[in-house]
């Protein structure tokens, strides 16, 4: 068997080149196209992230029937990706993916309307979970729950990887992505609702939601809570009305 040989002397020069050639970070209103990112620049703008984290996946994954597990995981990921991947004006999708038992997406959100639109996606996902569990139950498959974390912040994005290797990605440096991932772990357990928003995310979208539901007490839909690690956050169990009624009426 061949043994790995890492030419550390040659690679030291490459590392020095990387460290010395980054020429600056551009603060912009909205993140540019992916092709505008290089290995020598970076961009800083408002980004919002949503993470949907499967609850108690360890128990699910240890079930003996691999076919059952495959069906549940595919049902969980496929339509959530469909909800998250659609781009609208302004909130350009910058990254979407799956990390273990979690589906996530990161968007460029230069204005508050864009942040609200990401919140709306969380309401769709929450409603979809209700539909999915009915379909799972009809097939004798295990039901599942998920926590949905949302956060926004000014975020630094840099292209990382190795030039000309084909292995590269944007790295998100800031609270938006990290906090959304952590908040998703709080959702749908210990009395916390499935949708969990950072305080900054909530404050940037709540007035828009109130204006869209003028005759309703929108703020009563949310519960404010505090976590030693994340500070204040808001949680809720909000669904899309028409979608939810269709499910309740038998999905016919």
UniProtKB/TrEMBL annotation:
Single GO BP term: cyclic nucleotide biosynthetic process
Signal sequence interval, chain numbering: none
PROSITE patterns, A to Z: GUANYLATE_CYCLASE_2 (PS50125)
Origin superkingdom: Bacteria
Gene Ontology MF terms in the entry: adenylate cyclase activity
Residues annotated as domain Guanylate cyclase: 48-184
InterPro entries found in the cross-reference section: A/G_cyclase, Nucleotide_cyclase
Record protein name field: Adenylate cyclase
Organism from which the protein derives: Oceanobacillus zhaokaii
